[in-house]
């Protein structure tokens, strides 16, 4: 069911409405990452605006340039971790449009639903980002204690959190908050595995740009599949 949902989402990329949302999501993702990089460069410039004077009077003036170039590699490395919260934010912004495009093509007989209010969406996003950040800070302790298992911990943790968030957003459109939570609890294992499917490509630079929107579409299909199974 999970792979079927993902390949249905992938197959819909040529759809005009879907493609429009996809490119806007990619553009916003790139803008967020560029913003983070620009902020890092500003901090480096501020810290290195005065040359470092070594004993004997020799001044180091190239440290800022070195750190600036090195920061590009650092941001690419950090994008493995940064793309998880970025994906959550992008999905929250565009899920209604993505779900609408998916349902229009694959589930045309469903009644229309009112969009999730901006306030509700923002509240869910902020709450989830708080949980995501706190969980990953705690995970760094586990990475240090169990370095051989760090990769598995990262994907298992973020797969669980992303699956929880993606499915909640997809299901809440038609089930409401309580109904979505109840359905999610009944299918935790499937949702966790689907979240891991999203978490793995999120750690691959460039490929991770496509995942937030594809994830929203995948979990829209997954929601409808699990709802039918539950009924």
Question: Could you walk me through the main structural features you see in this protein, from its secondary elements to its overall organization?
Answer:
The protein is mostly helical and 231 residues long. It is 81% helix and 2% strand. It is built from seven helices and two strands; from the N terminus they run H-H-E-E-H-H-H-H-H. Strands 1-2 form a two-stranded antiparallel ribbon. Strand 1 and strand 2 (59-60) form a beta hairpin. The longest helix is centred in the middle third of the chain and has 44 residues, at 63-106. The model is unreliable at 54-66 (pLDDT under 50).
Main traits of this protein?
two-stranded antiparallel ribbon, globular, 81% helix, mainly alpha, 231 residues
Short description:
This protein has 231 residues and is mainly α.
Outline the secondary-structure elements:
Blueprint: H1 2-11, H2 16-47, E1 52-53, E2 59-60, H3 63-106, H4 118-145, H5 150-186, H6 188-202, H7 211-230
Antiparallel strand pairs: 1-2
Number of strands: 2
Count of individual helical segments = 7
Mean pLDDT: 77
State the helicity in percent bands: over 70%
Oligomer: single chain
User: How many whole angstroms does the radius of gyration measure?
Assistant: 21 Å
The helix-strand sequence is HHEEHHHHH
**Which structural class do you get from the secondary structure elements?**
mainly alpha
**Largest sheet, strands/sense/barrel:** 2 strands, antiparallel
Strand content: under 5%
């Amino acid at each position: 069911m999970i792979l079927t949902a993902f390949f249905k989402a992938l197959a819909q990329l040529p759809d005009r409405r879907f493609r429009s949302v996809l490119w806007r999501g990619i553009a916003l993702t790139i803008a967020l990452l560029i913003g983070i990089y620009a902020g890092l460069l500003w901090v480096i410039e501020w810290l290195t605006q005065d040359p470092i004077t070594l004993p004997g009077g020799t001044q180091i003036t190239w440290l800022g340039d070195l750190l600036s170039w090195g920061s590009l590699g650092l941001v690419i490395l950090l994008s493995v971790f940064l793309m998880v919260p970025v994906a959550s934010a992008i999905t929250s912004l565009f899920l209604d449009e993505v779900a609408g495009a998916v349902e229009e093509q694959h589930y045309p007989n469903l009644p229309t639903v009112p969009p999730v209010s901006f306030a509700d969406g923002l509240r869910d996003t902020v709450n989830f980002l708080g949980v995501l950040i706190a969980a990953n800070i705690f995970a760094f302790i586990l990475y240090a204690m169990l370095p051989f298992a760090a990769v598995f911990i990262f994907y298992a943790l973020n797969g669980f959190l992303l699956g929880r968030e993606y499915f909640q957003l997809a299901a809440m459109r038609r089930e409401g908050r309580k109904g979505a939570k109840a359905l999610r609890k009944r299918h935790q294992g499937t949702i966790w595995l689907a979240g891991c499917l999203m978490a793995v490509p999120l750690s691959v630079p460039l490929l991770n740009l496509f995942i937030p929107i594809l994830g929203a579409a995948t979990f829209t299909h997954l929601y409808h599949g699990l709802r039918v199974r539950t009924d």
